[in-house]
Amino acid sequence: AESPTSCRGCCRGSCECPGQQLQLTVANIVPRLGVQGDAFFRIDEHRHAGLEIAIYHFEQPRRLSELQLPFKILPLWHIDLTDVQVLEVPSKMALDSWFR
Fold it and tell me: What pTM was computed for the model?
């Protein structure tokens, strides 16, 4: 059986799904977004292939998770959804976005 950290077709600990093959183009990069202050830490700005990209750093607010785990988001208009899994949550939690 596969563990939650593995994926189909993996070999020797290396695993990549199509959603990780990011298309970093001017048309796919989302402009700067407003953030929800209680979960937001910072934005790291990077230059990749001549493009300015912004990586948003957040922490889960306690009202959503006691663990308050940190995470990062690179907002894009489109990713390949092949093999991407959807985890549905109650509407109140889903609408408690990191962005305004």
Answer: 0.71
